[in-house]
Amino acid sequence: MTAEQSLSLFVIGTMMVFFIWDRFRYDVVACSALMLAVAVGIVPFDHAFDGFSDDIVIIVGSALIVSAGVARSGFVDAAIQRFLPDLNSVRAQLALLVVTVTVLSSFIKNIGALAIMIPVAFQFARRSSVQPSVFLMPMAFGALIGGLMTQVGTSPNVVVSRMRQELTGESFSMFDFTPVGASLALVGAIFLLFAYRLVPERKSQQVSVQQAIEITDYTSEAMAAPGSPAIGKSLSSLVKLGDGGAVVIAIFRRGTHLAPLPDVVIEADDILLLEGGPAALDRIISQAKLKISGDRSPTSAETARTEIEAIEAVIASGSPLLGMSAERLALFHNHNINLLAVSRQGERLKQRLGSIRLRAGDIVVLQGARADLPAFLQDFSCLPLAQRDILLGTTRRAPVPLLVLAAAMGATAVGILPVQVAFFAAALAMVIFRVIPLREVYRAVDGPILVMLAALIPVSDTLRTTGGSDLIANWLSGMAVNLPPAGALALILVAAMAVTPFLNNAATVLVMAPIAASFASALDYRPDAFLMAVAIGAGSDFLTPIGHQCNTLVMGPGGYRFSDYPRLGLPLSIVIVIVAVPMLMWVWPLR
């Protein structure tokens, strides 16, 4: 072993120790490893930041923006509420969640697919009176196995495609991953549906600021404008859209106040007074295509000129708003501010929204131009609450993100555009068509993940440039000399699985792919199956909450402990190995 090889293994090994220790954030660890590699001379100065221009960073960042746009559209939630409003069996709910996440993960970033469905899991948990932990870990694992089906489903597939191009001159195509990946997804999903009871039912141990200020008794007002799908349907069917989070407390029809009985049929121009949490109110109003009434809503032209947002605020004592109503103030006409909802502690508000006389301590949801809201809050002594996403009153463009995503997928599938260009264009389209506001674009990108990837690329490449990957391949070859071909392939797959919990999955591919290729060459095998095995192993971290963002994402909301993951993850890992090895040998012959 040369000095450079020793230094490469030392830097990577030290980095893995710090990842396991988890004392410092992963991007800080990766950047520190990069600087250490530069300091000891295994990464040249002029190549230290090559990772920041790498296609992988563009693809991952763009995919996160596209995923955020699809999630914001509310399409998945609306589809479930429309087609499966009475799904109450825990196993049936779990099947829907796992299958949906698995399928979505094959087309969009798996963490994005998981994020889209987490709110639905919480709705199902409330409906079935179980803890969300029953659903969340199987969903996270479903997102991981779903990502194995296409090139863009997960970062390891993207990385291993690039590595194959560097090693053989030809990249894997979009659907080269599908035969093996779909088999694993099918078997894995079936396993999760029967083994989910291995997951302990835990209460969330994480109380966020948003949960601490959660308000569930806002009063809002909406009108069934002509063309609304709610017209002609009963009030009970409309309320179901809120999944128990909101109720209709009054109906105003042509000046008449009607009792909100479940069998009342909604007519055009009915004004509905609703009470509930912002999310439930938003689901009812957006899915039923109701028009928020009271003040005039911003027009599409006004929305195009400036960013419109909603904010929660408390009316302070001494505010000029005290004793005033929105109608009397003419909020929109005089201040370009729309009153969307009001909450008053200990009291149900039954009058029209615009006629409510505001009091000190009332909590209001105000909508307006981002530039106008701060001055209004200051002038009228309103104290903003901790900022959280309030989608009530926002315009939804559900078909747009789906069309953009389909166009990006189609362009890459037929080879018109490379993945990085297609998804960068898709992310840009999400912004241009105002699917996702500009203020949320960089929040969706998840900077620490991209910085970590960019820093790890040159560090991981030191194994190849110093010959360390060939050295490790020789070690593995020595171990596999007496193994049958299936055993040699399983060794690489298990090795990738073993490394992934301690190193980011994309970084695992960067480290393991050259080793796998050298390993295959030493045994006189074709490299394709071994590269695929690395991608599968790197994308199948079911043992810890730290190896993949999907596992980390559900840890807090699910209340899971570190030791909970192997309970379901270890048997699933065994199933993946048993199914993957023969499938790889069949689809990608070794000789």
UniProtKB/TrEMBL annotation:
Keywords: Membrane, Repeat, Transmembrane, Transmembrane helix, Transport. GO terms for biological process: potassium ion transport. The chain crosses the membrane at residues 6-21, 28-45, 94-122, 134-154, 174-196, 402-435, 441-459, 471-496, 502-523, 568-588. Residues 207-290, 298-382 form the RCK C-terminal domain. Its main location: membrane. The keyword Zinc does not apply. GO terms for molecular function: monoatomic cation transmembrane transporter activity. InterPro entries: Cit_transptr-like_dom, DASS-Related_Transporters, RCK_C, RCK_C_sf. It is found in: Membrane. GO terms for cellular component: plasma membrane. Pfam families: CitMHS, TrkA_C. It is a multi-pass membrane protein. Gene3D superfamilies: Regulator of K+ conductance, C-terminal domain. This is Transmembrane transport protein. The lineage of its organism: Bacteria, Pseudomonadati, Pseudomonadota, Alphaproteobacteria, Hyphomicrobiales.
